[in-house]
Write the structure tokens for this entry.
Amino acid sequence: MVNFTPGPSQLYFTVPDHVKKAFRDGIPSLSHRSKQFEAIFEYTTQGIKTLLGVPDDYFIVFTGSATEIWERVIQNLVAERSHHLVNGAFSKRFFEIAEQLNKKPSKTQVAVGNSFEAVSIPTGTEVIALTHNETSSGVSLPIPFISSFRESNPDSLIVVDAVSSLPYPDFDYSKVDSVFFSVQKGFGLPAGLGIWMMNKSCLAKAGQLLSSGISIGSYHSLPLLYSNALKNQTPETPNVLGIYLLGKVVNDFNQKGALAIRQETQYKAALIYKALEEHSILKPFVKNKIDRSKTVIVADAGNRTADLTTYLQENGLFPGDGYGDSKKTQLRFANFPAHSKEQFENLADLIAGFK
């Protein structure tokens, strides 16, 4: 069985062996105040920086999920105004969380499946919230587009949700202030861990809010997360096993190399998009090629969606359903490092053979 759902997705092939070693070594029972855990924390965060090209002036903290990070971003970085680029269910949810926390967010919204052209950011915007890869629709923002916000918005913090795209994108971290992801997609691990990367501008903003009497949360406030990270620790007992496994998988990725991972991702995506474009029934959902995600490929299958699902499952391949209203007319295919070139070649052949 090959799991192409966009998350939780296919486990990376080394994970079972890492889990066995973790249990042999007693990792799940480690104290988060032990020297051994501190070594795991440092090993994992340094590995992430190496893999993703994260600069030294960034720091990394751990949360329970990327969904939690949505909330922590708004609590710690926004007094009143965030601006959100909304083109699907997950970017919309980020905006809604700001509303639920009684902020005054604004948004630039386009139809699902579309990307953005010129975006005007309102004066006084504290955080520009960008979803690099909209998991619900398979639209991805080009890196130059993300980087363009820095010059025209020097006083805003730029925060990027990269949950369903990392480790593929090669961000220019000098052009953004924070990037976050979770492990159950591109890192091929069980769910239950969020990774929040940010620079000191974010820390300074959280301090300003705190000093002005605004609540920025409790055990996972940014200053508390940061002060613990300086000691390679966490404020609370974290997902120790998850952090350990992430460090091991990141090391596996580093041995392969980020460039090789990116090249494989592009090759696999090209196979499926070609198969869909040439098919008489199936088509890529995202029409503009520049906007098509390399890591979550969405296929329009119309009234043949159930037939295609059965056909693929009979051949051992399990696609993800379409999202929301598109559940019965689309399929989503994750393209993560856990998915081999051979699996994608087989998927492309099967799509081409579907009648």
Remarks:
- The chain has two domains: 2-8+257-353, 15-255.
- The two ends are 22 Å apart (CA to CA).
- Residues 78 and 126 are 6 Å apart (CA to CA).
